[in-house]
Amino acid sequence: MEESRNYLKNFVDVSVEIFGNLSVVDIKGEWKQAFFKGVSENSPSQYLLDNSEADTILQLVVVDHQAVINTFLQRWNNTFSAWKDGSSDVSESNVMSLQNVRTLGDTFMDNTKTVKDKGFSSVFQYFGYVMEEYKKSVQEAKPEEGICAKVRIRITQDLVLTRDAFQARLEIENGEEGSLEKIDVDIIITRTGGNGSLENDLFSIGQPVLEGISDVSGTGTLATGVKGSADWLIVAYKGAAVDEDVNYDVGGTLSYFVGEKEFNVPLLPDTITVKPNPSLTLGLLP
């Protein structure tokens, strides 16, 4: 499980370094073809995008995602302008680090080769396989020494319309002799029965409401014998279910330290059914 989690984390890291926002990865449409055409050697500005090319790309993106894509296009131009001037590692927030891109990219290529050697098509399929195997065995498996308790994400409802919100709740009970430190939770949303690809970009995941836990982004603590919880309000964008009902698994990973030892626990997913919003459908009718 740890190996597959590290592979997925590396993909997230390299994607964030390149795109500035992980959601860019899964924004579908013809804008990607227009982007690659715009940054080809044969384009008027070659690797840089001129205003006309950027406008063409944005016209191929649905309104909900235009701001995110526009920020990425600016990041691309900022980066190649900086590299052209001989600055490969700059401190500006919306510029890629050449060193990070190379290091993370090489690691991603190595990870991809490793999982393909194991018979999987991608790191996503490998992660999905490991999660499924874990779910099959978790009821029979003995708790790993040092693991505080079995944890999972619980959805408080069965279905939701696009543009509406649902709640995901995580509960932890610390049965250790010491406090849990450096608590970090990553929410992972995938399509039920899919290939394991991240679908987080189809949802808006709000900041968690915490009880008993001080934080869930890497600095949190949970005292001995205390029960803690985190509640996320999640909104399904209209792209989550356009024409028909779609089931999604909402799970993730939990990591924490007890003393100097780190533990990583997969959060068993719960399922939510997303239905197309009738009001949006009616708005598209002639």
Keywords:
single chain, 286 residues, alpha+beta, Immunoglobulin-like, 2 domains, 7 helices, 10 strands, globular, disordered C terminus
Write the layout of secondary structure elements.
Blueprint (H helix, E strand, L loop, with lengths): L1 H18 L11 H8 L12 H9 L3 H22 L13 H20 L5 H15 L15 E3 L3 E3 L3 E9 L6 E12 L11 E3 L3 E3 L5 E6 L4 E10 L9 E13 L2 E15 L2 H7 L2
Parallel strand pairs: 2-10
Antiparallel strand pairs: 1-3, 3-8, 4-7, 4-9, 5-8, 6-8, 9-10
Helix pairs in contact: 1-5, 1-6, 2-3
Describe the model.
The protein is α+β, with helices and mostly antiparallel strands. It has 2 domains: about 1-115, no CATH class; about 155-275, Immunoglobulins (Immunoglobulin-like, Sandwich). About 35% of the residues lie in helices and about 25% in strands. It contains 7 helices and 10 strands. The chain has helices at about 1-20, 30-40, 50-60, 65-85, 100-115, 125-135, 280-285, and strands at about 155, 160, 165-175, 180-190, 205, 210, 215-220, 225-235, 245-260, 260-275. The strands form 2 sheets. Strands 1, 3, 5, 6 and 8 form a 5-stranded antiparallel beta sheet that branches. Strand 9 (about 245-260) and strand 10 (about 260-275) form a beta hairpin. Helix 1 (about 1-20) runs antiparallel to helix 5 (about 100-115), helix 1 (about 1-20) runs antiparallel to helix 6 (about 125-135) and helix 2 (about 30-40) runs antiparallel to helix 3. The radius of gyration is 21 Å and the shape is globular. The chain starts with a helix and ends with a helix.
